[in-house]
Amino acid sequence: MRLILFRRESCRIEENEITLKLYSPLTGDFYKNDVDEYGWNNGVADYPTLFSGVDMAYYEESIREAVEQRDSDDGGNLMPYFDEDRNPGVRKKVLSAVPTVEIRDGELMGCTTVKLKEPLTEAEMQDLQDYLKGQFSDGWGEGFEQQEIQTGDGVLFVHFAEEPFDFTVEQVQGTETSKEQPVPKRPKMKLVGQDGNIFAILGRASRLLKENGQPDQAKEMRNRVYQSGNYYKALNIISEYVETELSEKVPPKQKKRSDRER
Questions:
Q1: Are strands 27-35 and 94-104 parallel, antiparallel or unpaired?
Q2: Angle 198-211/215-228 helices, nearest 10 degrees?
Q3: Pairing of strands 154-159, 27-35
Q4: How far apart are the first and last CA of the chain?
Q5: CA distance 224 to 241
């Protein structure tokens, strides 16, 4: 039997308790809020806008929470539904396969984390991928794409598999983490010459923070911006978390929250 060699990284599966990530494309149907000139929300648009993974990167947090909510009953593991008669090797070797989402190179993608007892052959890997594709189109994914995902500016429906696709497979390398992690520096982001819409600015800042290993700061920033009620206050809040042209006037999170929100 041959060990499988992955496309993106030239590495063989050799150790027990192997963790893989299987990435897959996402699409979405977005129904934008119909807000009139007086600021009243009259519901959502009648027809959706087709979203790609790049469009949905801004809504990563809401989509991830929706996946976790769907998985809350059984932990999200898709392998208990795999028929052993289909491939005994897959049933024996795969401990779990749990779907979620992850941003890669600015694009939100499906990310199924697979844990193995021992390496898969190429045939077993192919059977596993075919099974997961079936789950995304007719099983788990069919139910998830009917779930309304509420966002601040509309309703989103996310599809894990609408068209034929191939998984991108990567092996997670074990790393030792130090007890004390250095505090990441604020990522830099230009305001001048960019889209001035506050939601576009917030989306860029949020993605930069997440790519910089600061998802908690991104969540805190978004919550504060939504509560600010003022365009210029929102810009100043964003400039506390990412370095912009305004950051010289706004030190990074040095004031108390009560002072910052006045």
A1: unpaired
A2: 160
A3: antiparallel
A4: 67
A5: 11
Residues 116, 94 contacting (CB under 8 angstroms)? yes
Q: Which two tokens stand for residue 121?
A: 């052959």
The proportion of the chain whose per-residue pLDDT surpasses 90, expressed as a percent, equals 39
Confidence of residue 111 (pLDDT cuts 50, 70, 90): very high
Please give the helix or strand (H or E) that residue 126 lies within, else none: helix 122-138
Longest dimension (CA), the chain: 68
* Poorest-pLDDT segment among 1-15, 186-200, 221-235: 1-15
Whole-angstrom distance, CA of residue 103 vs CA of residue 58: 10
Q: Are strands 168-171 and 18-24 parallel, antiparallel or unpaired?
A: antiparallel
In order of 112, 136, 142, 151, 174, the CA distances from 16 in angstroms are 19, 27, 33, 41, 12
Residue type, 129: Q
- Span 241-262, pLDDT tens digits: 888 887 765 455 544 444 444 4
